[in-house]
Amino acid sequence: MTLSSAHHWLWWVAGLALMALEAFFPGAFFLWIGIAALLVGGVSWLLPGLGGLTQMALFAVVAIGSILAWRRWRGGRQVVDSGLNDRARHYLGRTFTLDAPIVNGVGQMRVDDGQWRISGADLPVASRVRVVAVEGTVLKVEKAD
């Protein structure tokens, strides 16, 4: 059986298989190639006399065009940084009570479920401090009013 005499369902099976590959190798690359195969299957179903070379050319054009269109659309989107993996950023502006003094500008403070290095002006135990900045793994603090 040659491609020109192949049935439209071969394109549909190929399209579904390519879309299934997307589940194992995400990145939307196989998705758009699979959609292109489904579209060529639909065209070959509507136009059963379409030759094999024409079907392959149509597939190539639609696949490349859909990938380029997706990349252009995706490129215009802004990535939202939720700070999910940046715990320290969630502490900015929060106020805490020191359980150890800040000596020579350095100390430690218990924050939620962890111990953090802090830096700021020397302060005694039980002072209220506000987190004003983060430098790596060190919270910069200042005396809270």
Provide a descriptive summary of the structure in words:
This protein has 145 residues and is of the alpha+beta class. The protein folds into 2 domains: 3-75; 87-143, OB fold (Dihydrolipoamide Acetyltransferase, E2P). The chain has 3 helices and 5 strands; from the N terminus they run H-H-H-E-E-E-E-E. The protein has helices spanning 8-24, 29-46, 52-75, and strands at residues 95-97, 106-111, 114-119, 128-135, 138-143. Strands 1-4-5-3-2 form a 5-stranded mixed sheet, with no helix packed on it. A hairpin with a 2-residue loop joins strand 4 and strand 5. Helix 1 packs antiparallel against helix 2 and helix 2 packs antiparallel against helix 3 (52-75). The chain is rod-shaped, with a radius of gyration of 30 Å. The N and C termini lie far apart (83 Å). The relative contact order is 0.11. The model has no long low-confidence stretch (mean pLDDT 85).
Brief overview:
The chain is an alpha+beta fold.
Helix proportion range: 40-55%
**Strand proportion:** 15-25%
Mean pLDDT metric: 85
Alpha carbon gap, first and last residue: 83 Å
What is the strand tally? Answer: 5
Please trace the helix and strand order, writing H or E for each element. HHHEEEEE
What's the domain count? 2
